[in-house]
Amino acid sequence: MDVTNRTVFIAGATSGIGLELARRFAAAGSSVVVGGRRADLLDRLAAEGLGTVAIDVTDQDSVGRARDAVLRSHPGLDTIVTMSGVGMPEDLRDPAHFGAARQMIDTNLLGTIRVIDAFTPHLVGRGAGAVITVSSGIGFLPFPVMPTYAASKAAVHAYTEALRAQLDGTGVEVAELVPPAVATTPEQARLNPRALDLAGFVTEVMDLLRADPTPHEILVKGVLMHRWAERDGTYADLVAQRSQALATFPGRR
């Protein structure tokens, strides 16, 4: 993928990995539009010179309005990145977890589908372009504290595989970014010393995107243990290790 001359829309890029990707694409020479819900953050990013558009991926009308605005200002759009996501712990013994589960499915899975559906006719019509979905290492190696998050990201992986097959021959390539834990704030780095440094992670991602051909899965070194746990025979032991975190739930030990 030539990252120096693209027109990119990243849904969910007002902070964290999405924002760092937006800045890297822009620094490489691409035109970038950042989508997000918070007007104050969008205003700040507009002052940096990034394009911005309001979008709530859980709202079909909002997605449609964002698409129309992006295509009016950037009719040559050739790349979309479905970065929007939310993750929360859930105690499955407590029925109150369902509200969190519904929010994660609506954002992580249905939000991804809404954004892809909105822009696919444009990309197919121009006969070239790219869709980059964002799953997670947790989608391949579950973290039992976050069951629905893992399920939603596993679903994004499966959906991406099907999307790639259905768009074969259209000129639109489909790639899946699979992040491991990435420290996007100093507090996250403190809480999870194993989390990857944000800048280093995105540098590796951009290098992988530049490969020819673009990999179907963008796998940094830090996520390989997740992605290939079943193949390597480490899956059961790693899930058992990760299950130890369940002791943090009330009434567990």
Overall description:
- By secondary structure, the chain is an alpha/beta fold.
- It is 48% helix and 15% strand.
- It contains ten helices and nine strands.
- A seven-stranded parallel β-sheet has the order 3-2-1-4-5-6-9, with helices on both faces.
- The longest helix has 29 residues, at 98-126.
- The relative contact order is 0.13.
Q: Brief overview, please?
A:
The protein has helices at 16-28, 39-48, 60-73, 98-126, 147-167, 186-191, 198-209, 224-227, 229-232, 235-243, and strands at residues 7-11, 31-36, 51-54, 79-82, 129-134, 172-177, 182-183, 196-197, 217-218.
Write out key terms for the chains shown.
10 helices, alpha/beta, 48% helix, globular
- Residue ranges: pLDDT <50 for 5 or more in a row? none
Largest sheet: 7 strands, parallel
Mean pLDDT reading: 96
Question: How many helices?
Answer: 10
Q: How would you spell out the order of helices and strands?
A: EHEHEHEHEHEEHEHEHHH
The gyration radius over C-alpha positions equals: 18 Å
Q: Give the overall shape.
A: globular
What distance separates the N and C termini?
49 Å
Beta fraction = 5-15%
Percent range for helical residues?
Answer: 40-55%
Q: Report strand order across the widest sheet.
A: 3-2-1-4-5-6-9
Strand count:
9
Class by helix and strand content?
A: alpha/beta
SSE order and pairing:
Blueprint: E1 7-11, H1 16-28, E2 31-36, H2 39-48, E3 51-54, H3 60-73, E4 79-82, H4 98-126, E5 129-134, H5 147-167, E6 172-177, E7 182-183, H6 186-191, E8 196-197, H7 198-209, E9 217-218, H8 224-227, H9 229-232, H10 235-243
Parallel strand pairs: 1-2, 1-4, 2-3, 4-5, 5-6, 6-9, 7-8
